[in-house]
Amino acid sequence: MEILAFGVQADERPLLEKAFAGLHDLHCLDVFLSEDTAPLAAGHEAISTSVNADLGAHVLRRLAVGGTQFIAQRSTGFNNIDVEVAERLGLTVARVSSYSPYSVAEFAWTLAMSVNRRIVRAAGRTRDFDFRLDGLMGRDLRGRTVGVLGTGKIGEAFTRIAHGFGMRLLGWDVAENPACTALGMSYVDRERLLRESDLISLHVPLLPSTARIIDAEALRLMRDDAILVNSSRGGLVDTEALVAELRAGRFAGVGLDVYEAEAGLFFLDKSLEVVADDTLARLMTFPNVIVTSHQAYYTVDAVNEIIAATVRNVVDYTEGRRGENVLVPAPPRT
Predict the structure, then answer these.
(1) Which of 98, 230, 289, 290 is 20 to 30 A away from residue 62, measured at CA?
(2) Per-residue DSSP letters for 143-168?
């Protein structure tokens, strides 16, 4: 079977090709799946997509018309997939239900420490042989309070690191994680977590119930000198409301690895273009803000786990099994 993989990064390609060698013919594209690129999948029974693929209703219909029957998404989140339409069209859809939680948790802490200790500004200065310390003062984290919104596998890994720093631990989730409570985490309501935390890190999935969970009201509850980190999904934060608070001089730092309108921007080189997104452009101007391009998961360990799960998903499909990663099962045989 020939598989067409969309949105394959240069570092990812040799790992993906090696994993599929001897199993199926794999063709890699660096373009992302969208309504414009969907016709490229014509004639391919199976395709693989990346986290920023557009798998809305229009794209799914184009894929189905072209003969695609199976979609293997190389990510955990599936907020970009219209699952109901896929089911109506008879498409089988699988994802990667989990991979190394340490990749994202460690990167979230990288963002937190970078904004706290002004690493980007300091590195830029020293490159110009400016060795002043003005404006570079950070804070000790030991003894301060961290609020973790979402204490699943990634949130737990983030909490373990916070525990190592000697921080007071507050958590919020629909269910308590015994591993986090064993570390001394107190579960509280969201409003209390926002009010009391010096550092807030987001690790909940993007669902209708969590969309813009950090909205204008939530931002107003946060301390003026708080640090906010989002390495989960951009849609968890109302970015325009965040910009308004930053313009008012609030927050010690903000670290964002995701952005709610990142599709069509992240993973692409836009350095020679005029970016029309005024909100993102404004966000980039604040010296206490770091924006990275959805790279928290991007370690060789995590990517290899994602690829291994994708291979298993394809093998399960070809052998007629319903694996644990299936979002939309194959239609019943008649």
Answers:
(1) 98
(2) T-EEEEE--SHHHHHHHHHHHHHT-E
Per the annotation, the verdict on 262 as an active-site residue is yes
Tens-digit pLDDT profile for residues 115-134? 999 999 999 999 999 999 99
The CATH fold assigned to 2-99+299-328 is: Rossmann fold (3.40.50)
Whether the model clears a pTM of 0.85, i.e. scores above it, the answer is: yes
Fold of 101-291: Rossmann fold (3.40.50)
The Cα–Cα gap between 296 and 79 comes to: 18
pLDDT tens, residue by residue, 144-158: 999 999 999 999 999
Tens digits of residue pLDDT in 286-306: 999 999 999 999 999 999 999
Check if 233 is active-site: yes
Which residue spans of the chain are classified as CATH 3.40.50.720?
Answer: 2-99+299-328, 101-291
Determine whether 117 is exposed, middle or buried from the number of CB atoms within 10 Å of its CB (0-12, 13-18, 19+).
middle
Given the residues 62, 168, 203, 294, select the one marked as catalytic.
294
56 close to 82: Cβ distance less than 8 angstroms: yes
From 95, 203, 233, 250, the catalytic residue: 233
Structure tokens at 244: 């308004």
